[in-house]
Each structure stands twice: as structure tokens, then as C-alpha cells.
User: Fold these one by one.
Assistant:
Number 1:
Amino acid sequence: MLVSSWLVGCFRSKKKVCCDFTRARVNLSAFVSEGIYHKVGQVTYHLTKVRSLPTDISFSRPPKIKPPTRTSFHRRHLQQPRKNDHNTTRQTTFPKTHTHTPAMSSSSLVLGSKPLLGPLASLSLWTFCIEGLLYYRRTPALAKYNINFDPALVKQEKATKLPAFVQWPADNFNNLLEQPTQFYAAVLALTLLEVKDTATTRAAWGYVGLRVVHSLIHVSVNRVTARFAVWASSSVVLLGITARLAVELWG
């Protein structure tokens, strides 16, 4: 009896252990399978979210912001106006703006500061023009009228053999070397005295114009009355320029 009861007890305890072991293995398998299923579900969910994202999103790193250096900070700080104290004032400086100025030639600058040099140079150039006309008419006439170049006879033969039309440019050239020399001296003196008023400048240009008209009459028709009227007018203008110089010197 004791042996049989002991065997029955052992059989029951062994069966209970086996049942407990089987139940624990089933529970472990269910736990592992449930965990794996849960993890797979999470991964699937995240993959679905990633696929639904827009395609134009870039996952690049944001640009690094460079911290302000000491120099740039002070430059910006100096450009900003500071609050003035009650006793001191501070002027704010602004950057200079480049404005386009039209370039002026050197001749314009000279004529602007010394306007009387324009009439002087113009009359000198006109004198060279009359000299060119002199040679243009006289050179062919010397060979045409067979002028003798003997120093003792050349002047007399030019006066007797050459026609008056050939002699007129030479006479006018001599006139341009007489009274206009006073004009050159007066204008140079006024320029040295830095006289550049409008009245004096117009008077100088008027004298040059009258001398040009005098030369054109002299070398073309050579009417003495008309030539004398123009010459007298130019002399009056030259007298006024000389008076202006006298006022500057002794006035």
C-alpha cells in the first residue's frame, strides 16, 4: 500500500510538472510571436509614413551660420548713429555718392579762365590766311610778268608790272602788322591782370570781326570809302580796350 501510494504520488507530480512545463512553453511562444508581430507592425507603419512624404523634401543639413566677427560688428556699429549726449553733438557721416560730371577739354578750361586769348589767337590766324593769299596770287604773277629779282630793281618792277589785284593782299598783310600789334599788347596786358568781364571780351571779338571785314573788302573790291569806315570803327573799339587797360593800371 505504501509503495503503491508513493508511485501514484510520483506519477501525479510528474504529470503536473509536465503540464506546467508545457503551459510555460506555450505562453513563451505566444509572447515571442506577439512581440514579433508588434515590431513588424511598427516597422510597416513607419515605412508607410515615409512613402507618403512629398518627394521634394531634402534632408540636407542646414547651413552653418557664421558668427559675426569683431571687424564686421564694429563696422555695423559705427554706421548706426549714436544717441547724442546733452553736452556733445556727433555728426553722422554718410558714404559719398559718385556723380557723373561731363569731362571738359583743356581748351574750354583755358578760355573760361582767360577769355581774351580767343580773340588774340583768332586775329593771328587770320593774318596767316592773308599771307597765304598773298603768295597764292603773287607767285604765279612773278613768272607771268617776268619780274627781275635784282635787289635794286625788284621793288620797282613789282610796283609797275604787277596788277593791283595781285598787290592788294600784300597791302592788307602790311596793314595787319601795323595797328593790330597794339591790340595784341593790350589784350595780353588785360589777361595778365586777370580781366575777363563780358564787355571787354565782346569788344575784343568785335575788333577781330571788324579787321576780318576790312581785309575782305581790301582783297576783293578795295573800295576805299567802305574800307576806311570799317578801319575807323575798329580803331574806336581798340581805343576802348586801351582805355580799359588804363583804368586797370591807374584807376
Number 2:
Amino acid sequence: MDRSVTIQKLIEGLAETSVAERMKIRAQIVAFGKAAVPHLVAIVQKEGQASYRAVDLLADLAPEAALPVLIEAARSSHLRLAQASIEALGKMGDVQAVPVLVEQLKHSSSLIQMSAVQALELLGAHHAFEALIQLLQTTSSASIRYTIIESLGKLRDERAVPVIMMFQYDPDHHVRSRVARALEAFGFHS
């Protein structure tokens, strides 16, 4: 069988539901190395079941080729693909991803927003501070509030302290516990 056909069939097999089978397929694809990259790019761009499962593999095998593809995939209407791409961009550590991650803070899905917050945290994206604060102050989602507060605590940007303090009496206990942890990270003790 032609090498290209073999790679393509393996990549399509990423849509399998069995974790063990997907891990075996992943190892086989990795063995093909850079030869698998064009096929991975194509499957990510298709936005199907296998596309979001191919994201990490693409990022691992060829980060330089993955970056523009994952930036575009982060904007996908396929939520699982967008989320996986945002998470991979955070792990890749390339600050070129910051603009699309900031853009995704405005997404209608709280899952996408939380993934973008966490990816920005991984990138140490202090220049996204204003966008994070804006979302923190406007969201009605307790999950997003505590995710942002936790990230701000880890980023240790002193500008965040007064804003974090505003959430000390938030109605959600998860938010309040993240406020306490974040303030401890800044040296405040309760």
C-alpha cells in the first residue's frame, strides 16, 4: 500500500471511539514523522470527528506548520476543534497565538472562553491583561470568573489585585476560594 494512503487511513482512524485504538494509531502516525504533516493539516481543516483529535498530533510533530493551521482552527464553528486548537496553542507556547486567543475570549461558548483563558495563562500573556479583566468584570459565568481569577493569580500581575479583591464576596464559593488563593499568590494572607 502507498505510504500516503496508509497515513491517510491511519489519520481517519483517529475518529475511532476506543482510546486504546486511538493511542495505537497515534503511535503509528508518529512513526511516519514529517510525512504525516500534510495529511494532519488536511484533516484538521476538514473539521470532522478526526480533526480535533489530530490537533495535538500536528502540534507535536510540526509546531511551525501547525501554528497557522491551529490559529485558523481556533476560530472554527466546530466547538471541539476550536477548543482542542486553543488548548494546543497554549501548550505550544508561541505568543503569535495571543491575538486569536484574546479574540476567543469574546466567543459565545463559555467552554471556548475558559480554554482561551487557560491558554493565555500558559503563554504568560500579560499583554492580554485588559481583555481578561474586561471578561472577568462582565461575565455572568462563575466558572469563567474563577478561571480568570486563578489565571491572574498565577500570572502575578500586580494590576490584578484590586480587581480580584472585588470578587471576595462573590455569591459562588468557587470564585471566593480562587480569590483567596490568588491573593495568597500575591502575598496577602487571610
Number 3:
Amino acid sequence: MATRGAEAWEARQMAGMAAVLALLVLFAAGGGAPAPTSSQPQAAAPQPPPLPVYECRRAGGLVLVDGQTDEPAWGQAEWVRGLCRSDGRGRGRSQTDFRAVWDDANLYLSFVCVDSEIVAKHTERDAFVYEDDCVEAFLSSGSDLRRYFEFEVNPLNAVMDASVFPNPEGTDKVVDYSWNCDGIEVAVRKADLLPHAGGKQCT
């Protein structure tokens, strides 16, 4: 999946240096509780764990958006293998691996997913792709992780993209589904695996 546009990713400013994608994790700070009146020292509040960091390396050559990642450009890309469930309850039942590279024009994301029963029905842009088997990416180009761009792609090559930002009224968040990423390209390739591998592979 490739994205263009200054808002989505300021690739030109990253030339010559490794780009870092921080996995999006939001922490709510507690507030409104009265200050402790006891003279006894209070235990320090537990600190959230550090955010996982992924080093997105520069592509080593031309990248084709064709659902395959066998070009030399991907040779130095770091793999993230065995992604965890979104609810934090361990790893998923099926294997999902991820890697990414960038060049002066684009950011490229690659997912390899193994699934014994691929389910997908949506084919139109900005449909409810999250109801299908899909991969998702959340990209924030600034320090405020409450503002980010969301991308979802299902096995039928349907795309949902949106701009997400805090609600000015202070309640929840605003998801702008009317926003579309200019120049986005996606490609899905499905391949049968050997019977003992337990399913089909999508990239």
C-alpha cells in the first residue's frame, strides 16, 4: 500500500535518515480526583510502558505495488512477525507479518496474512471494510497521536481511508470518512499454501 501527500507523510523531509513509525497507543490521563491530604508519602503512579518502535528503512530500489514484495528494495526491510490481538489478549490465531520501506515519494506497507477462511464482501471505496478480514494502518505525522490517518484494506482490494482528530467539544473523536488519500495504491495477492500450512496467504 503506497500513500502520497504532504499530510499523510512528509517523505521529502526524511531523506537520508531512518523514518520511525510509532504504533498508535492512546493513554488517558486521570483527572479530577482531590489531592491526597495524608502526610504519608504516596506511591508513584504507574507509568505506561514505552511505545513499541519500528524502524522504517529506505527502500533499496524500485518498489512495485503489485501485491508481491520480492524486489531487492525490500531486502533491508525489518519484519514485525506475529502481531498481537487489538484487545491485547495475546497473539492472533493466524499469522500476520508486517514490514515497511520508504523513498522520496512514498511510504510502502506490506502485510502477509495467513487465514484458513478468508471472509470479505465489501468492494467499494470507504465501505465498512472493518467488517471483513482486513489489515489496518494508523499513521500520525506529528507528536499529537490523537490526530492520525486510518487505512484499511480487505482481500478484495477495497480501501477505507479516513482522517481522525479530537472532537472540539471534548467528546470522543471525529472520524472524517470523506477524506481520501490522494494517490494511494493498493494491491492484494492471494496464494494457496500447502495443506499442512493451514490456509491461504494474502499479501
